[in-house]
From TrEMBL:
Cellular compartments annotated: Apical cell membrane; Cytoplasmic vesicle, Phagosome membrane; Membrane
Catalytic activity: L-alanyl-L-alanine(out) + 2 H(+)(out) = L-alanyl-L-alanine(in) + 2 H(+)(in); a dipeptide(out) + 2 H(+)(out) = a dipeptide(in) + 2 H(+)(in); N-acetyl-D-muramoyl-L-alanyl-D-isoglutamine(out) + 3 H(+)(out) = N-acetyl-D-muramoyl-L-alanyl-D-isoglutamine(in) + 3 H(+)(in); glycyl-L-leucine(out) + 2 H(+)(out) = glycyl-L-leucine(in) + 2 H(+)(in)
GO molecular function terms noted in the UniProt entry: dipeptide transmembrane transporter activity; peptide:proton symporter activity
Protein topology in the membrane: Multi-pass membrane protein
Principal location listed in the UniProt entry: membrane
NCBIfam families the UniProt entry points to: 2A1704
Alphabetical keyword list: Cell membrane, Cytoplasmic vesicle, Glycoprotein, Immunity, Innate immunity, Membrane, Peptide transport, Phosphoprotein, Protein transport, Symport, Transmembrane, Transmembrane helix, Transport
Record-level GO BP terms: antibacterial innate immune response; dipeptide import across plasma membrane; protein transport
GO cellular component: apical plasma membrane; phagocytic vesicle membrane
PROSITE patterns according to UniProt: PTR2_1, PTR2_2
Protein name in the entry: Solute carrier family 15 member 2
Name of the gene this protein is made from: SLC15A2
Source organism of this protein record: Aquila chrysaetos chrysaetos
Function, as annotated: Proton-coupled amino-acid transporter that transports oligopeptides of 2 to 4 amino acids with a preference for dipeptides. Transports neutral and anionic dipeptides with a proton to peptide stoichiometry of 2:1 or 3:1. In kidney, involved in the absorption of circulating di- and tripeptides from the glomerular filtrate. Can also transport beta-lactam antibiotics, such as the aminocephalosporin cefadroxil, and other antiviral and anticancer drugs. Transports the dipeptide-like aminopeptidase inhibitor bestatin. Also able to transport carnosine.
Transmembrane helix found in the keyword field: yes
Amino acid sequence: MVGDKARGEMNAFQRNESKETLFTFISAGDDPPKGDFPVQKKSPKLCGSNYPLSIAFIVVNEFCERFSYYGMRAVLTLYFLSFFHWDENLSTAVYHAFSALCYFTPVIGAIMADSWLGKYKTIIYLSIVYVVGHLIKSVGAIPSLGNQVVHVILSMVGLFLIALGTGGIKPCVSAFGGDQFEEEHTSERSKFFSIFYLSINAGSLISTFVTPVLRGDVKCFGEDCYALAFGVPAALMVLALVVFIAGSGLYRKTPPQGNVLLEVCKCIGFAIKNRLKNRSRQIPKRDHWLDWASEKYSKQLIGEVKMVTRVLFLFIPLPMFWALFDQQGSRWTLQATKMNADFGIYVLQPDQMQFLNPLLILVFIPIFDLGLYPLINMCKFNFTPIRKMATGMILAGMAFGLAAVVELKINETDMPQLVPEESLIRVLNLAKNPVQVTIQDRDLFQQPVEAFQNPAEYSKLILNGEQQSLRFTLQHQGLSLAFNYTVKEKSVYSLIVFEAEGSLSSRLITDLEAKPENGLAAVRFINGLSQDVNLSIDSKRFIAVQKNYSASEYSLLERDKYNNGKCITEMGEFTLELGLLDFGASYTIVITNVSGGDVKTWKSEDIKANNVHMAWQLPQYLLISAGEVMFSITGLAFSYSQSPASMKSVLQAGWLLTVAVGNTLVLVVAQAAPMAQWAEFVLFTVLLFAVCVIFSIMGYFYVSVDPEDLEEKEEKRETSSRGNMISLVTQKTKL
């Protein structure tokens, strides 16, 4: 997904009637040079056209940078989950904390560019910070480098520097590209932003598909290769910096001109301070609270700030949309890890599903612009920008409603959630005849357990405390045998019943309490032979299992068919065929005997495989991507049309801050109110629908204005005022 919403910004260009402000509203206060600034040399043209050669370096730089950012972010949640072994809530919280920081830091970049360094130097310096962050992040993903504390520290430092770099250059690069065009080439400049927009989506689309492959399909240090998945984006960011510097001699570089965002903040601050200062004095009331800044600031600036604050007030409900939208990289990715990813010709990685968003955006924009919106207009329906944005909210809410339904279906194959003084138990009968099992007068198993049959569902065992010693009674062919075992709360057990030395015996072994993570399969072995065995599963993994029904630890494997394993015994080496080990399943493999040149095994599926296909996520991606087109693109075009040209950058900062606040909301919910995942999806759905109603009411009372008309009225008023002054001076002169 293209989280910086540049696709919306670029398309807003195509809807903005004022061509002179095509790049100012995404710059952070950058306007074309005015006054006595040095004349910039003209850049060579591309193939004799009016396109400066310098834009080629900027477009390639943006492609590499976006590949770098989205490639790294695509695998970030699974990195926290699998590499650090954090739980889902903590992984989600840190992911969204990082995302929020990426949208707070553009304000820093804007101030640096407009008040101090200029756009070119800001891009260079913060890109170096960006590269250093990527390198530290990649080194932190090398398993052999220190302990987990070292990995966490390096990763957090790397993420902080990446957030500072990507956020800091965000308001500068596109505006710097606009600076390369001469003022008379507005049409070429507009087309450049379309190319710029395509480079962003191309980088996002390719990286969100490729980096999960580098993570999951390439193995290093014996596990998923996160070092490579972070290293390749780091290399792309180095390339982005090199390409940008290579074009240095071709760029037109405008000097810093002061940041209008700071001026607006000072104006608002002075108005509030002045109002509080004069609260107790008998001073005539003023029409608007911002009028209290008139002692220090011009009426034109105050009037423009009034227009901007009206739009910023409409921004208040918007963070809730982004709270849902940005969970594609966290909660939806975690959901995909619990689904069947086999598409027949290709097995999709769970974090690869994110590539659907930029792909669908590229498809939906022309469909909406050339098909849907004209069709709605033909039906004489007044589909105003507010209504489009509200519709986008509804679509996003529906997407999360579908995600909740999918989550409930996924939960059908999950292990039950245990509470204190509860445990689960089942029986694996490896004897020749049925066995009746009772546990200290608890009638858990109604029927005798058949030999070598897939066991029934786990039965819930209620204890008297954190742990309890229980008496297990086995009835077998008229004989009754008793065994004592200690059972702990919130644990899952299998009672293995087998024949040994002509009698019946048993073992109580601990099972997995939850599905294996990331769609992996878990397998353990029970050795039913009278001799120790060494097992090889995939030519890399060797497991030693002692004789007489001892059980091995669980091994986690990629989903695949394993029919070329080896079983090494005192009698020789035999082929071990395990068959398909499916997504998210847990298996117990019992080695029963050796006959001729073969090892006989029996496989039990302890935890069911993921049976909900990942394709069921497609409807929710379709809905939220359609919602983004209606919400983001329309919102930018509308808000910028409602503000004067000099204030476009203020709205850009406000828009980015709504994304930051939205990610902060997810962070708060993930940490403060842990709940079942389907319930959390429903909560976000309800919240967004409620916010949509509030936003619609606010929009109903909002009166659209044309900033150009207001500016013309202000100019006429000033002209009239100057005329009156001249008339008075003339009259006094005559007198």
